[in-house]
Amino acid sequence: MTRRTALLLSLLSALGCNKDKPTGGAGAPKRLKIAVVPKGTTHEFWKSVHAGSVKAARELDVDVVWKGPLKEDDLKAQIDVVQTFVAQGVDGIVLAPLNDAALRAPVKAAVVAKIPVVVFDSDLLGDAHSSFVATDNVAAGKLAADHLAKVADKGGVVVLRYQEGSASTANREKGFVEGLKAHPSMTIVSDNQYGGATTESAFSTSETLLVAKKAGEGNVAGVFTPNESTTFGMLLALRKAGLTKKVKLVGFDASDKLLEALRAEEIEGLVVQNPFNMGYLAVKTMVEVIRGKKVPARIDTGAKLVTKASLSDPAVMELVKPDLKKWLDE
Question: Which superfamily does 137-273 belong to?
């Protein structure tokens, strides 16, 4: 064997050994790019979702692009974001729809373009999406009803709704109303008012509602609020009216300010989801869909009632206040 032949055989052998181990060149498999579109980007809830999605992306060695509207009432902005990702040709879209009907057409367009969609947090009409990853919100609402009945015992109850078209909060409200029927000593005196997408709008509506229902005269024993902004808005209104501790408040989701109020007994309980796990499972499910695996049509990410007493449990603290610095550059 000549030296030249030996070198050629050595080169061919090396190429053969490396053909299944691409290094990122032209022959390398395409790196998956997954778009994650939340309802908004300001609430603490979404930051935890973001962190969970980053954890999944690192474990699965894929890229996640996080982009959503600033406020949770900017439906047009969310539709534009989804359409932009479709035009860019991302490999998959993970979406928390602001409206259960308005996002139906953009999602169908994505699927037609062979871009699968996993919906999370809030449901979407239709069956174009591959899976739904979320809290069982009806069951979570019933948790809140049982706890409010326990701490308030009897009297009038106000339900401050979030906003029309939001399936997740609508199901919490539905679960609460249904759950309260098991407690005949409690009577709902208002359940047709909406706080809107911001703390400011929720505070304004709460103020008006408390006055209209004569809460200061003892006609309201308890209040249920279905998300972070309505809970904080109602809390501010109760503080201004001097009704904290007199009117029992059971809310939804957690933030530093809400946890402080829970410790101060201004809030009786918070139904807490697992947004970190939701973001993690949503991205993990999307990767499985892209890779051709069969996934469940619905994945429950769990919910837990948190009280002042349970805050001493390390597992509860990890749930309500996860360490996000490990995952987010903040």
Answer: Response regulator (3.40.50.2300)
